[in-house]
Amino acid sequence: MSPKITTELLKQLRQVMKSPKYVREPVQAYIVPSGDAHQSEYIAPCDCRRAFISGFDGSAGTAIVTEQHAAMWTDGRYFLQAAHQMDNNWTLMKMGLKDTPTQEDWLVSVLPEGSKVGVDPFIIPADQWKRLSKALRSAGHDLVPIKENLVDTIWTDCPQRPCKPLLTLDLSYTGVSWRDKIVALRSKMAERKVLWFVVTALDEVAWLFNLRGSDVEYNPVFFAYAVIGMNTIRLFIDGDRMMDPAVREHLQLDSTLEPEFKIQVMPYGSILSELQAVGASLSPKEKVWLSDKASYALTEAIPKAYRYLTPYTPICIAKAVKNVSETEGMRRAHIKDAVALCELFNWLEKEVVPKGTVTEIIAADKAEEFRSQQKDFVELSFATISSTGPNGAIIHYKPVPETNRTLSVNEIYLLDSGAQYKDGTTDVTRTMHFGTPSAYEKECFTYVLKGHIAVSAAIFPNGTKGHLLDSFARSALWDCGLDYLHGTGHGVGSFLNVHEGPCGISYKTFADEPLEAGMIVSDEPGYYEDGSFGIRIENVVLVIPAETKYNFKNRGSLTFEPLTLVPIQTKMIDVNLLTQKECNWVNDYHQKCREVIGAELERQGRHEALQWLIRETEPLIRVQ
Amino acid sequence: MSPKITTELLKQLRQVMKSPKYVREPVQAYIVPSGDAHQSEYIAPCDCRRAFISGFDGSAGTAIVTEQHAAMWTDGRYFLQAAHQMDNNWTLMKMGLKDTPTQEDWLVSVLPEGSKVGVDPFIIPADQWKRLSKALRSAGHDLVPIKENLVDTIWTDCPQRPCKPLLTLDLSYTGVSWRDKIVALRSKMAERKVLWFVVTALDEVAWLFNLRGSDVEYNPVFFAYAVIGMNTIRLFIDGDRMMDPAVREHLQLDSTLEPEFKIQVMPYGSILSELQAVGASLSPKEKVWLSDKASYALTEAIPKAYRYLTPYTPICIAKAVKNVSETEGMRRAHIKDAVALCELFNWLEKEVVPKGTVTEIIAADKAEEFRSQQKDFVELSFATISSTGPNGAIIHYKPVPETNRTLSVNEIYLLDSGAQYKDGTTDVTRTMHFGTPSAYEKECFTYVLKGHIAVSAAIFPNGTKGHLLDSFARSALWDCGLDYLHGTGHGVGSFLNVHEGPCGISYKTFADEPLEAGMIVSDEPGYYEDGSFGIRIENVVLVIPAETKYNFKNRGSLTFEPLTLVPIQTKMIDVNLLTQKECNWVNDYHQKCREVIGAELERQGRHEALQWLIRETEPLIRVQ
Questions:
Q1: In a shared domain, residues B149 and B199
Q2: End-to-end alpha carbon distance in chain A
Q3: What is the ipTM of this complex?
Q4: Where does this protein have coiled-coil stretches (chains A, B) (predicted)?
Q5: Mutating which of A80, A453, A462, A482 best tests the B interface, going by the most B Cβ atoms within 10 A?
Q6: Domain extent at residue B229
Q7: Domain of A397: which CATH number?
Q8: How far is B483 from chain A (nearest CA, A)?
Q9: Which of A139, A314, A381, B147 pairs with A572 at a CA distance of 20 to 30 A?
Q10: From B140, B507, B552, residue closest to A483, measured CB to CB
Q11: Domain end point (choices B94, B125, B154)
Q12: Span B570-593, pLDDT tens digits
């Protein structure tokens, strides 16, 4: 992977930063955030402006270009990747390290007095705008919205915004009709005394209308906004997708409906002017509900006194708690996914060990091939992380020809992969060795496993926030002076984004909502040695009620049930480092894999993979 | 404990809330916070306005009186106590429970349109003012500062503000001279480019000048403010205490000093006008540093553009990291404290078991008597919680004649007590049974002990915040569906406040600063059953570097060393619920108690207590 040469691009960007054609006054700095106008984590190619200008294409990062400097802020998952992908024009700002300045501190330190800092108001979330603008103002600078995106002005071959057909999901998948979702949303709006709710996140639009799209790779969403009033529904969406009879039928566009369920379809680009019209029409005490992460542009459309901002929208919270149809769908999806992985690992063992011809890319492609054989497979849920040896230490690695290593019997192999099925979304990481792991590799793997089990088996009171469980995942590593520089888990959508709020398990997330039965998160501690190997063990787990001996204050308790049912390589485990309880957990888990996945492999006639599964789920025996 | 009858008082308060003598316009609600003008947790009798108006005298709570309602917000430690102490005029608002409204939500729900809400601007911290004022304004109400405290106007027998002599601390106690502390503070000020620092917290004034006082019971502080400039030092303090030759000598008030170390002594009451003068004298870009918890009145004295507010002051952070003189002092204080408690517990066993004549108050007094026999004893560090049976479930219980129970062989006894010695501050809780505890009591005690050990023995990377350790203390309880409704630990001062920032161990504290070697916190998980018993095991622990097998990213690791060395009653432990590691921890801890405290008991000729110590520190044996 050679870095992108950005000298010419930066020169051009610095020119437009001063060009009266685009800016009223020259800006001394220009911020290029990761997101799109919906604050999506995964974005369409036309929105990859930060990757275009810098070369760094990880999922999180913010670029700031000044007349002299170009700097990139990203987190621990991406330190190595960003360093590889960016040329010497760029300074890497490692977020989370003590000496790394914040964006505002850095700007204040490098900008000449009274500078203007520009940003696209559609891309920057309102809460970030507020924080940044305040910090800059207090240092004598100004944050200014630049209507035309300056990167777009120099991006001559920028791809078109996608506009692909939609998929309708019936009740057997969603459990709740879009009409009932609208009713529930309006009741939340009535509770908070707001008249309007603006849906800006793509997965929230998709979830609300029980529609799916494919405008963004890996995320089954489509470009749209919605504005829900107490008696009106406006859907802002482009293209002829609304001409599709299935979609018209699903949304009842041609039926005579009660007016409050009649959907008005409007052009995607008209959201700002429509919202400004809503803002202008409000009487005192009438409020409009927006996420505080909605774009600065849309937030500004509503005068301040009329805004009702919350960190999580009622849709985000409702979406996180899966209903029975959704959890059953997720179970089915994970069973199919496990079948594909058993096939893959069985195939890898046969190919890697004697032949040594399998590369990271071949392995990733093979994983996709096996998944695509499963019913209702749609696409992958994220770019497969297929990494061996030192590549495994690059936390969000994606193999490309320049970095593509061959799997061998001498290195640890880490595969983090998942798929979108029509009934659910998967995300699983397994770390394995095709030869004989060293004692040290086994030791590290076992600490990671202990952390994985500590979270998975944790029992905690109703109302507990996920971040309170994060240290459980680290305790065994901490005891030996080890750690990992990423969170432990994220919310997972139901045939939706593989990362979703409002819950998670992280030392960083303080604004998370309490875990509730029905929520689905990942449990994925790891350990990484730069230049050597990476270890991660990830299951997707469902929050379920726990039976406990006592019940303090009648609060009730929760725990997790793994939805992922793929063997954890016992060869990598140093059994003597496990407690008896942990050993039992592994054996119970493997027993369940054998029963549930074994039955499905049998049903699908995949006998060789079944033999592999049975071999890999032999009980551990702990010598006392 | 019968509740205070507040009908007449509330009537009077409601009258002054409308009286033009005190308020420009009538206020429809009046807020009575806990604190004093220094936002102290422990306050002088003249500042106990919330207790005066409501009867509830716990350390935390906010009263709000409207024309129709009177409501009290307090946290889980005080639910029972507040319910006992307040009459029917009051509604208890249980903070931390899901259905409890916030003060602002409640105000909005009960106030007539366009109301005014009054509060004393010297008592309310600026950050709370801001939050509250914003919430009220957005609902059409106004928060207004009422210069004269309305409770004081009806408090006819309000005691005088204390003004007691000062104690000077020499280098052998403090390790650093006040001059060097000023130099270090000014260097922090220079780093942040501020010209002035306003010291508002009483313990910060005391720490900065190496002075102690006794204006507030349990906290060795005195009423004063300080304003530190780059070349000036102003100390705002009343009375003839500055006439004391020892104090004059200590502060070098009569020496010819470099001007930047010359202390100007000014009247306590002149702080506001002096600060307003400072505020008026500032040029653009000149900043004044204040805690964001400083009073609204003082914060407003500095025009907004000139304020530099932080949640923790540089003094708060420096004070938390104890130097060698301070940690050695803390060690000595804890040894003396343990001697007193060994004497007490030995005495209790002799008195309670055969005679049954010891009440909670007698036990508390006896504890104080034994402590007062120790060298450099000053006073208690908080009101002794001496509680038996159901009183133990009242988390911050203080025995009074009406509630005073007799210790018996049938109940669990919980003693949470501590002292101020000239060399350090102690805070220790032990829970014991003088007869035969039930299996259930032992079970609960053992879970609490497991939590205590999990924190005490935790190893964690440098830079970890204390709140990340909180769940370790709860894990064993959670496994059985149990929990406790308070944090796990607080910072402890060095011959200063028994509760101090900026670190702690709590699920609630997200703004805590990372733990550092030299910080001192408490480790005090518990379990409480209303109406039955309370269990808590508390040690004061010092943060120390930990040796680990590996050292990820060269970050280094930390752990805790118990400073408290008082036996944990083994009779209460169900050894079979402990792991071998936990069992070893208890035995190692008891071995250290035996060695260190045994030697001191020997030295002090306290042979009977020594025998008790040896008996109580017999190793546990775990049957495999």
A1: no
A2: 49
A3: 0.91
A4: none
A5: A482
A6: 167-319
A7: 3.90.230.10
A8: 7
A9: A381
A10: B552
A11: B154
A12: 999 999 999 999 999 999 999 999
